[in-house]
Amino acid sequence: DETEEAEEVSQRKERWLAAAYQRIYQQQRMNVVALLEHFSFLRGRHAFSVNWVKDDYPKNMRDKVFPILIRPLDPLNVGISRNPLYTDYAFHKYCEKVGKVKRRYPKLELAKKKDDAEVDVIDYWWTDPKDGDIWHCIVVDGEFGKKPTKTDYMHIPIVVGHGDLSNYLNNDWSSLPLIYPTIDLWKYQCRLTSQMATMNMWYAQPHVAVTNENGMDVGDIDIKPGVYKQYPMGTRFEQIQVRPDLAIVQTIEQRVASAMQDSTFPKVMYGDAGNIQSGYGVNSLANNAKGRINPFRENLEMSLQHANEIMFSLIETFGGATGVNVWGKDAA
């Protein structure tokens, strides 16, 4: 509503979220959003889970900790299925040491496995298509560590977001990393660099041919600076200098490097105007360069908006009448 009361509630929620993210960073000992940015740029998508973890702490710690956890996940280990209306299911599959699994799930039949062996763990969430309830189970090495259980969650707590949204309707092109245009160029640049290194060897270490007009044995030749050695009469040394066209390979390599630069972070983003003289042209280029990052930023923002929605729903469901307190600090 457009009322002072509604605006005050909105501002309080914003202050609470700012402090909550500070607490989550300290809880995880890292900048969670920065890691999600890293995955977005490098792998073309990001993934994380938003869980109510108060009951997972030891009893004496439960009233002293922040009860909500945002945990970044490797998007290669996360699967998700969405329909046009909501998320059907999502899972996080990872490897864990048997010793850790035994401590958490002592009833599992893992006695025959060594503690340092690894087993697959699948954290699986799905939506009941009839009533919309959220269900959860944990599968460890083919056994239920946690049997299918109906939860009080309002949303599936696993969130997957895209990087550079190219074509949402085609899985092969639905989510691309920032470095995607450079993948083939990088391989080509490596080949060119290898060629230039080989060409430099021809200049620095030319082939030396040794002949003797009288057919006499010259013997072993060990050429060193400042060393005098006598060879049979009629011995000739001929240096065969192959001169590869190093300049043209260097030119191609520079063009490839420029193409890689322009397709990721153009120099104009950092103040290099190149051949453009007019201020208007430089400004346009700078705006276009910044726009290269917009899809990544917007997709991550939408994922974090969903994370905020999940956090408030967790407080509404599990926080009780007192809600959830969090401490933080302002910019000053």
| Shape, per Cα inertia axes | elongated
The span between the termini is: 31 Å
- Main sheet record: 5 strands, antiparallel
Mean pLDDT: 87
Q: Helical segment tally?
A: 7
Number-wise, the strands total 10
Trace the largest sheet across and list its strands: 3-4-5-6-7
Helix content: 25-40%
Q: Regions with pLDDT < 50 over 5+ consecutive residues?
A: none
Q: Structural class of the secondary structure composition?
A: alpha+beta
Instruction: Note the beta-strand portion.
Output: 15-25%
Radius of gyration: 32 Å
H-E order: HHEEEEHEEEEHEEHHH
Give descriptors for this structure.
three-stranded antiparallel β-sheet; 7 helices; 332 residues; 22% strand; alpha+beta; five-stranded antiparallel β-sheet; 10 strands
Walkthrough of the structure:
By secondary structure, this protein is of the alpha+beta class. The chain contains 7 helices and 10 strands. Strands 3-4-5-6-7 form a 5-stranded antiparallel beta sheet. Strands 2-1-8 form a 3-stranded antiparallel beta sheet. It is elongated, with a radius of gyration of 32 Å. The model has no long low-confidence stretch (mean pLDDT 87).
